[in-house]
């Protein structure tokens, strides 16, 4: 009986044969050629910062130089997964960090919730927030001057932002601000505010910053 069951088991795993004269199905479809990259980036505020961070700023973080002063975004679209920040008290003074997903343009609407915390003693101020999944700010967005979120932090704040980037098979998007002494064809990383290293207030913690 055991031998019969083994034979039946082997027979049950055999692939069905294609009958003669029957056409074989066409090759399977290609589901996606989009390059997707999930990453957690770290930035340090070298000065107090209180302004909007745009989707253009976020896409200008990863650049490819086409000349010594010109660059194009490596990715075409970005989605914000989370923003996290830590700020210690300075000289015994309390420090506050604040983040608001405040996009107010059609297609880029945020939830406008205020996420804030204040340091006390040696305990740093700390926030971790995400745009509401019901808001359009939580979805993929193209490069634009619309606010992704408002950020208010003191000097010395450590800011982590979790992104998902996508690269489409379409024309490249030029970086908003000029590069400085770049090497053509090289890849670079820029601060969270999208400006050059010499003037950025939110410096990227990475190599090849520009």
Range of helix content: under 10%
Indicate how many domains the architecture comprises.
Answer: 1
Examine the secondary-structure arrangement and name the CATH architecture. Answer: Sandwich
CATH topology: Jelly Rolls
CATH class annotation? Mainly Beta
Number of helices: 2
Terminal Cα span: 74 Å
What's the short version?
With 210 residues, the protein is mainly beta. The protein has a single domain (33-204), classed as Satellite virus coat domain (Jelly Rolls), CATH 2.60.120. The protein has helices at 2-12, 55-59; strands spanning 35-45, 49-54, 62-65, 71-73, 77-87, 96-100, 114-118, 125-129, 141-142, 147-153, 158-167, 187-189, 202-204.
Helices and strands, with pairings:
Elements: H1 2-12, E1 35-45, E2 49-54, H2 55-59, E3 62-65, E4 71-73, E5 77-87, E6 96-100, E7 114-118, E8 125-129, E9 141-142, E10 147-153, E11 158-167, E12 187-189, E13 202-204
Antiparallel strand pairs: 1-11, 1-13, 2-10, 3-4, 3-12, 5-8, 5-9, 5-11, 6-7, 6-10
Task: Give an overview in words.
The chain is mainly beta. The protein has a single domain (33-204), classed as Satellite virus coat domain (Jelly Rolls), CATH 2.60.120.220. The protein is built from two helices and 13 strands; from the N terminus they run αββαβββββββββββ. Strands 1, 5, 8, 9, 11 and 13 form a six-stranded antiparallel beta sheet that branches.
């Amino acid at each position: 009986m055991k031998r019969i069951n083994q034979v039946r088991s082997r027979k049950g795993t055999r692939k069905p044969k294609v009958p003669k004269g029957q056409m074989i199905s066409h090759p399977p479809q290609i589901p996606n050629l989009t390059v997707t990259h999930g990453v957690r980036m770290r930035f340090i505020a070298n000065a107090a910062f209180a302004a909007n961070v745009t989707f253009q700023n976020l896409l200008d973080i990863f650049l490819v130089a086409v000349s010594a002063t010109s660059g194009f975004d490596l990715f075409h679209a970005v989605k914000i997964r989370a923003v996290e920040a830590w700020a210690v008290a300075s000289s015994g003074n309390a420090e506050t960090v604040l983040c608001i997903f405040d996009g107010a343009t059609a297609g880029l609407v945020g939830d406008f919730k205020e996420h804030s915390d204040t340091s006390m003693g040696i305990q740093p101020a700390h926030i971790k927030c995400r745009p509401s999944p019901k808001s359009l700010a939580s979805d993929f967005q193209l490069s634009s001057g619309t606010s992704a979120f408002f950020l208010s932090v003191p000097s010395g704040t450590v800011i982590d932002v979790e992104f998902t980037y996508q690269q489409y098979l379409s024309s490249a998007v030029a970086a908003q601000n000029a590069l400085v002494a770049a090497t053509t064809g090289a890849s670079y990383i820029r601060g969270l505010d999208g400006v050059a290293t010499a003037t950025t207030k939110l410096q990227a913690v990475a190599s090849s910053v520009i």
